[in-house]
Amino acid sequence: MKFVNLIVADWSRVDQFDVIAPRRFREGLTFERCTRTRLRIDVKAHVRRKCPHVLRLSHVIWFHHAITAIVTSSRIYYNFTRMFRPISRLVAFSCRFAAARTFSSASTFENILVDVRGENSNVGVIQLNRPKALNALCDPLMHEVNQALDRFENDDAIAAVVITGNEKAFAAGADIKEMLPLEYKDVVRGNFLAHWDRVTRVTKPVIAAVNGFALGGGCEFAMMCDIIYAGENAQFGQPEIRLGTIPGAGGTQRLIRAVGKSKAMEQILSGDSMPASEALQSGLVSKVLPVAQVVDEAVKLGEKIGKLSPLAIAAAKEAVNISYEVSLKEGLHFEKRLFHGSFATNDRREGMKAFIEKRKASFTNS
Amino acid sequence: MHEVNQALDRFENDDAIAAVVITGNEKAFAAGADIKEMLPLEYKDVVRGNFLAHWDRVTRVTKPVIAAVNGFALGGGCEFAMMCDIIYAGENAQFGQPEIRLGTIPGAGGTQRLIRAVGKSKAMEQILSGDSMPASEALQSGLVSKVLPVAQVVDEAVKLGEKIGKLSPLAIAAAKEAVNISYEVSLKEGLHFEKRLFHGSFATNDRREGMKAFIEKRKASFTNS
User: Fold this and answer.
1) How many CA atoms lie within 13 A of A63 on its CB side?
2) pLDDT: is A63 or A352 the higher one?
3) Would an 8 Å CB–CB cutoff place A200 in contact with chain B?
4) Looking at chain B from residue 186 to 225, which residues have their Cβ under 8 Å from any Cβ of chain A?
5) A236 pairs with which residues across the strands?
6) pLDDT band at A61, cuts 50/70/90?
7) Which residues, 6 or more positions from A247, have their beta carbon under 8 angstroms from its beta carbon?
8) ipTM value for the complex
9) Average pLDDT in the A83-98 region?
């Protein structure tokens, strides 16, 4: 019998909850009994329960793994690999009754693995998982990545996202078998690649942990992220030219902004790639690390960022990104208005106060 | 910052001054903006007072400004250094934007200028984590021009100012303006602007003197005309 954890900060506020589970499960079971508290959970109907263990600050209830979500009056906790994660009911209210349909596919991604890591479980990790194809990016994979990103974006418990592949390849390109039969009319009418840049609209920091091949679409995907940590075996390149085409997901725009014209032209026009050391030296990546450490260090960076004010983080990220869009003068204007705006937050006051009082700040995302 | 601006005004208007060096002491260039000053401010205060508005006077100086940075250049200090034209760093220099740790963001150009200097990955890493980078990394990533022993930084910056001072102030000001416009307009319009300034230099005596001296294999003597 497999179980998943639900941690609720204050069970005394939860006096009633629904359980969402697949129909066949519901019909076969009248109740589950939490193995720790012996709390009886009636799967079929509303249950009025006051947890007797209200004195504990956080309480772990174990539910059967087939239960897809727990719905309380203020939150919906959905089953998300080993643990129920909360999202605000305001956000999820409209999907409550669609929850079974949406969440029932929660853990069944085919092309990616999704995980939550970190001491405070606040770093979402998306691992591209098509090892036989060296993680070649295809439409279904990108759709799944986008779903995972949506979920992390809406989950207040997640502070940062790490995207990685495996030790051999981050992503060795787009799926050429998928692209071969397409004609001009197909890619234009299908707006091919249009949704591949969802990651650029995430308001939380996204760190690419790149080992092995990051070529073509893989390199472009990494460059869409905010920060790149590379393993010593990483290779970055845009070999599309060798297929008689050009980078289509930002390679021609982002590479030159990172490494300058001469290097960018050389790579894009020849299809050659550069090793991690050259990527570091030319400004494409922030760090080069031993292969086995890259993902851990990326998660650590996510945790470090997770200790700061999410409001300020999102504003800082937006300001930095606008520098690619407007003139310096307008970028400075935009930055100043965001900076002014930060004075309206409690986090700004708390951060400055803590600095003056020489203590650790405790941010509240308000 | 008001006093810095007054000094800059003075140097700007003094024809005897060819270049400006801005420095701190060996321990710190500037370790940030004054947080005690900022703590009590509310949104209405910073908006109505247009907080930080005059802090960028140094970007409007027509003469070259060289930042000689030893020690901490953090937050506003890093932003101030990046407003200058050239940065010479001492071996103990630290550059960073730790505003995020105070629950706010860089407000004097850090988010705009750092990425233009060191690229997105490094800039995002620093601005989002608040970590700083040492002089060697600043050099390697393009933020500073040179890293020197701490005791030599100011002298070398002054020497650079003197070297520039031997050249035509008209040409220097035009060159600086052209380079700076590259951050504001497209390449095409930047080239257009540069070309018009280039054409304009042909209306100066300094251009004629400089080219003549080169052909005659002698030292040019510019007259700022």
Assistant:
1) 29
2) A352
3) no
4) none
5) A214, A274
6) low
7) A216, A220, A238, A240, A255, A268
8) 0.92
9) 48
